[in-house]
Design brief:
Blueprint: E1 10-14, H1 20-33, H2 40-53, E2 57-58, E3 62-63, E4 66-69, E5 76-86, E6 95-104, H3 109-121, H4 125-133, H5 137-148, E7 162-168, H6 175-190, E8 193-198, H7 209-214, E9 218-222, E10 237-240, H8 242-247, H9 249-261, H10 289-322, H11 326-336, H12 346-363, H13 366-379, H14 384-396, H15 400-419, H16 431-469, H17 472-488, H18 493-504, H19 511-537, H20 544-558, H21 566-571, H22 573-593, E11 597-598, E12 611-612, H23 614-637, H24 648-652
Parallel strand pairs: 1-5, 3-6, 4-6, 7-8, 7-9, 9-10
Antiparallel strand pairs: 2-3, 5-6, 11-12
Helix pairs in contact: 1-2, 3-6, 6-9, 10-12, 10-13, 10-18, 11-12, 13-14, 13-15, 14-15, 14-16, 15-16, 17-18, 17-19, 17-22, 18-19, 19-20, 19-22, 19-23, 22-23
């Protein structure tokens, strides 16, 4: 295995730009120049997408931008010691030590272990001090290689007070392990033993039942769900995002010890799928059933979207090559022709038929995937098979995506209930492979066929008829509502609900569904475009970081990535969110009233060939962006002065 870092990947005491984006791009170019990644823009974009989830700056002058990327060919570290430092979002100021951690999309366990070892070393003051004192790139390479070289650690028997903790972040490369080591170190300072289970990408051993039983309390420092949360049932609990464990580990340990001594402190519930109404507590992460149901549905939607995107884009390409009548003849062309025996219309017609057929097959998994992963969110893996099956049943009886949602819930809860049955030890091996899928499929599928199919099919048919009958003011109102939803949380649950409504009903044979898809995509493109326009026209109203984000927002908006507006909304939500909602609502209304159609579920300007009435679509997009930019510019002038310049040069001055 090659070294994870080389001298040509190290930059010492240089100015790589005034913003974190500049530094990330320069480091990405080093990785590509070293032959460890294939495309600078691709790696840079993936790293920025991770930055959009949460800042990667850490206390002590450290920045750790990181990502998994299909453009990375082997796990790599690129390092810069900056002069001057650059703001990566840490609470104590700019970072002068920056590691770009680049992992392949499918990195193996050994390589990920090296990456996480580095992350863990960054919480050690002696390691960062050595990096700042390094005289040459070769010295840095030696320090890093020593840090990531596994060493055998003696196992000490725990004594005295004990805590257990779980750390996890979305990427599972850096913050997960840095939080773990921070909590362990904080425990040592407090005279407490902290045992941590890291639910990340690297190898990790689950906490044993004895260790959990001996602990006085549990700490959940996670940005994602805790796996097998029920193991900790009854333990006093303190919960937060993963970065608090890095920034305030001593406070979290103190809170956990206090919770252990308080008989009224929050406790971990026996099961996250409990049937009694849970209380809602910010420290425990307990949620109401409404929130839990939303999480379940969004899990199904998130797994469904790749089928929608791939299938929809292939269908749109089929139309591009074969014309809009290709749907009527695609199956016959594909089965009766080949490259050696082209149909009437030649190669374009044949390719169009192939692309359309591939897209239609992928799109056919929409409802089964929705149902299958709703069931998965409820019952874990035992729910997948019955969920997919009942999703196919819903499609067969004409219940559509509504049937998929209902069927997925039925299959998931049936699988969960069956999995909890007390059976003899000799029969447990049959449960996951026979009993659970058979019982849950029979129950949910039987209900769908015998009882629910026709009523749900009638509801689906009624919804389609209502959409087809929309015109005039009713269509405009729907466009406004969809526009408001797309801009409200920019990729969050409300945005996803509007997107799922559009994609789940998308059909080339249903003009109304194509109008809804057009409204949703156009409205979703507006927030980043509006803010990009505002930063270009009125730059003094925005900070240096926001102006840099504005440059990237042009491409993000054009690509239908609404999340490009998140950095602006996070910095100033009361002014930004209402402004972009106004622009998106206008766009949605114009698209619906203008009869614009769209047969592709994603792609932005790159699927303009799939847009009907393209002039109206572009007009609506421009109008929404202008109105949103104007609104946010006016809002930022009300009640405050122009945003301060937070560039390193300005801070130093």
């Amino acid at each position: 295995m090659s070294q994870i870092i080389q001298a040509e990947l190290v930059v010492l005491d240089e100015n790589l730009g005034s913003t974190s984006h500049d530094v990330i791009r320069r480091l990405a170019s080093l990785v590509v120049a070293a032959g460890r990644a294939t495309e600078v823009d691709g790696l840079y974009g993936d790293a920025l997408a991770r930055e959009g989830q949460a800042a990667t700056g850490l206390p002590g002058g450290i920045g750790i931008p990181h990502c998994r990327s299909k453009y990375v060919t082997e796990p790599t570290l690129a390092f810069a010691r900056l002069t001057p430092g650059v703001d990566f979002g840490a609470p104590d100021g700019p970072a002068d030590l920056v590691f770009l951690i680049a992992a392949p999309a499918g990195g193996d366990a050994d390589h990920l272990t090296l990456l996480t070892a580095l992350a863990r070393s960054l919480v050690k003051p002696e390691f960062t001090a050595a990096l700042r004192a390094a005289a040459s790139p070769a010295d840095v390479v030696t320090l890093v290689q020593e840090a990531v070289t596994p060493t055998e650690q003696p196992t000490a028997m725990a004594s005295g007070r004990q805590l257990v903790a779980v750390t996890a972040c979305p990427t599972g490369i850096a913050h997960t392990y840095m939080a773990a080591d921070s909590l362990v170190a904080a425990g040592e300072r407090a005279g407490v033993t902290v045992h941590v289970e890291t639910q990340g990408s690297g190898a990790s051993t689950p906490l044993s039942a004895d260790t959990i039983a001996a602990a006085e309390a549990v700490i959940f420092a996670t940005d994602v769900g805790v796996k097998d949360r029920g193991r900790f049932a009854g333990k006093p609990v303190v919960a937060s995002g993963v970065k608090r464990a890095i920034n305030e580990p001593d406070a979290m340990v103190a809170d956990a010890l206090a919770a252990a001594e308080d008989p009224n402190s929050p406790r971990v519930e026996a099961d996250q799928h409990r049937t009694s109404a849970p209380r809602k507590d910010a420290r425990t992460g307990d949620v109401s059933w409404a929130v839990r149901l939303r999480q379940i549905l969004l899990t199904g939607v998130s797994y469904m979207i790749p089928f929608v995107a791939a299938g929809g884009l292939l269908i749109a390409l089929g139309f591009l090559f074969g014309g809009y009548r290709i749907n009527a003849s695609a199956t016959e062309i594909v089965t009766k022709n080949s490259l050696a025996q082209l149909p009437d219309g030649g190669l374009d017609q044949y390719l169009g038929a192939v692309l359309f057929s591939l897209g239609a097959l992928a799109f056919g998994f929409l409802v089964p995937a929705l149902a299958g992963y709703i069931a998965f969110a409820i019952a874990d893996r035992p729910g997948i098979a019955p969920g997919f099956t009942v999703g196919v049943v819903a499609t067969t009886v004409g219940a559509g995506f509504i049937g998929g949602i209902v069927g997925g819930l039925l299959a998931g809860f049936a699988a969960l209930w069956i999995s909890r049955l007390k059976i003899p030890a000799w029969g447990r091996g049959l449960m996951p492979v026979v009993v659970i899928p058979l019982g849950a499929t029979l129950f949910a599928g039987g209900l769908m066929f015998l009882v629910l199919g026709r009523p749900l099919a009638a509801v689906t048919s009624g919804l389609e008829s209502w959409l087809n009958g929309l015109s005039g003011s009713s269509a405009i109102v729907l466009g406004i509502v969809l526009g408001l939803m797309m801009a409200f949380d920019m990729g969050g649950p409300v945005n996803k609900a509007a997107y799922a409504f559009a994609t789940a009903g998308l059909s080339v044979d249903n003009p109304a569904s194509l109008k809804v898809m057009a409204a949703v995509m156009a409205a979703g493109m507006v927030p980043p475009l509006a803010l990009a326009l505002a930063t270009a026209v009125r730059p003094k109203l925005f900070s240096t970081a926001e102006r840099e984000n504005g440059k990237a927002a042009w491409l993000l908006g054009a690509s239908f990535i609404t999340e490009g507006a998140i950095p602006f909304a996070a910095a100033d939500p009361l002014r930004v969110i209402p402004s972009i909602m106004l622009g998106s609502a206008l766009t949605g209304a114009v698209v619906m009233s203008g009869g614009v159609t769209l047969s592709a579920p994603h792609g932005g300007i790159f699927v303009f060939f799939a847009v009907g009435h393209i002039a109206v679509f572009v007009l609506a997009l421009a109008a929404g962006a202008v109105v949103g930019a104007l609104a946010v510019s006016i809002a930022k002038q009300l009640g405050r002065k122009a945003a301060p310049d937070r560039s390193p040069a300005a801070v130093a001055a």
